[in-house]
Amino acid sequence: MSIQIAPSILAADFANIQKEVEMLNASEADFIHVDIMDGVFVPNISFGFPVMEAIKKHAKKPLDVHLMIVNPDQYLEAFKKAGAEVISVHYEACNHLHRTLQYIKGLGCKAGVALNPHTSVELLEDIIEDIDLVCLMSVNPGFGGQKFIGNTYERVKRLKSIINRKGVSTMIEIDGGVNQVNAPLLKEAGADVLVAGSFVFSSENPLDTIKNLKSIS
């Protein structure tokens, strides 16, 4: 199965957001990754519901929404209404993770869990059956354009081992510092979805960049 690509709209030109979304519609991308940051859980603020609704208005790809926020439960229904099809919450921000995942699924969305670089993948072993997607942060969350953390490959392998042992179909998504060099290694380690922001939107031809990522073997 080919790798799935989720360009991060956070790296797009927001003065031309409709044009950028239409470019992604025409690309071989599988998702549009939407990073929501509150300035509390991470040291940055991105955007809220009005901008997300504007993205959804033009998007023909599923919105993969990554909540880097505290108290995500109180906003889950609003993100669903704004167009989310996948919602990932951070393990570190959820006191009752199982309940949060059931809430997301009850809204009709796929439920994801994101892990910061320092958080052990083994913490998900007892709940992996309830997770549709695990988003492994391969940079410290909060800012785009950071350097990829090399220990990510080992984390992917360990998580893949848990998924295989449990016999579930949970997907592994990698978020941060993805490029043409590490993408094949991530796929080999067991990754299913690659998030790419600056690497796509700062490239000379984003359509070709997405196509090349998609075609890695």
Automatic annotation (TrEMBL):
Q: Which residues participate in a divalent metal cation binding? A: H33, D35, H66, D175
What is the uppermost EC class here?
isomerase
User: Quick one: which residues bind substrate?
Assistant: S8, H66, G142, F143, G144, G145, D175, G176, G177, G197, S198
Query: Annotated Gene Ontology MF terms?
Result: D-ribulose-phosphate 3-epimerase activity
Cofactor(s) the record lists:
Fe(2+); Mn(2+); Co(2+); Zn(2+)
The protein's Enzyme Commission number? 5.1.3.1
Residue ranges spanning the membrane: these are none
Q: In which pathway does it act?
A: Carbohydrate degradation
| Family listed | Belongs to the ribulose-phosphate 3-epimerase family.
Task: Provide the function of this protein.
Answer: Catalyzes the reversible epimerization of D-ribulose 5-phosphate to D-xylulose 5-phosphate.
Q: What is this protein called?
A: Ribulose-phosphate 3-epimerase
* Species whose genome carries this gene: Shivajiella indica
